[in-house]
Amino acid sequence: MAPSARSSRRSGPTFRLTAKRARPGRVATMRDNGAVASDPSERGRAWALANGSRRGPIRLAHPGSNLRIGPLVPLRREDTEAIEDAAMTAGATRAVGAGRRPVQEAPDAWRTCFERDRDRIVHSTALRRAAGKTQVFIAPANDHLRTRLTHALEVAQVAVAMASSLRLNVALTQAIALAHDCGHGPFGHASEDAFSPYVPGGYDHAVWGADVTLADLNLCDETVDGVRNHSWSRPSPPRTPEGAVTSLADRVAYCCHDLDDALRSSLVHSRQVPAVVRELCGETRSQQIGTFIAAVVEAGAKTGRIGMMEAEAAALAELRAFLYERVYLRPESLAQREAVIPLLRNLVEHFAEGGLPPGVQPARGLVADPLAAAVRYVSGMTDRFALRLAVEHLGWDPRRIPLSAA
Fold it and tell me: Is the pTM of this model over 0.85?
């Protein structure tokens, strides 16, 4: 039976819900160790009272549920590894135990090492901050335009579609895809130019993400390698087929969704899209993504390699060249880039000279290097946070700050 509204047996802090006579606008109160909070709606009161229903030794989320799944033997990590091994192709990456990590750990009872990596990335602050970082448009007014986070989610969807059809390790693919752009600073690729003078060898978001941003997560070597080498411009290719698939998925996803955003923002018209893209890959984003995924799967089936059939690869290259000409290198974009580079450099120098704000601790290994700690701090900022600090700490005139009109 459902727990009483007056009391509930549970461990941890005790909550008491009282249905005493409420003043107008105050329907119920919730007490947590003496603190009183009020909810002004019947809906809120119903939500606060929804604590499930006890059935013997367990509690059900929905009192009326009669769903049953057992009896069963739970799937342990070793079982999942064996199932994956039987289902995957010969060249796919196998999960074994806790995985190869910078700091060795005991294996998880239920999750493979790559599932564990994926879960750590999903719950990381680095991935959450990607919601406020530029994909193409800086702090756009239109909430429907992509951010680095939505880009990562779309890359993961495309990569998983490829990896599952090619019988690769899906969990490893997801982990690499979700994490691949965590090393980006505010304002997209412009931040790489801004930070490069302060980083030996220059600032590369792929390398920085793998070696600095995600270092505290203690990820498996294969995951880190896929993040570090996902960019096509990297001198070394990914060591795993899952990393190679993510590289293709990244380009497919950003070309298709950046075109969608450009169309949505009226930067281009559908009639201007290259004819080869429209004729071979379709007019809609769904058709285009589906075409490119199928071309990767077909290439794998025919050749045993991770690649894309030549006709579709040529169409993708044509689409990318079109986006560079009409979107990435348009005058407004270049003007924004020129404005944000000095902003970011001034922030780095400000925090390198004056120290990080109270409560912000430099990452392990960067304590003795204030410049590296400042780059780490500023590179993690969202667009709007960096813009706000430029006004507060540097006295920047807000009119100098380049927001997207889209």
Answer: yes
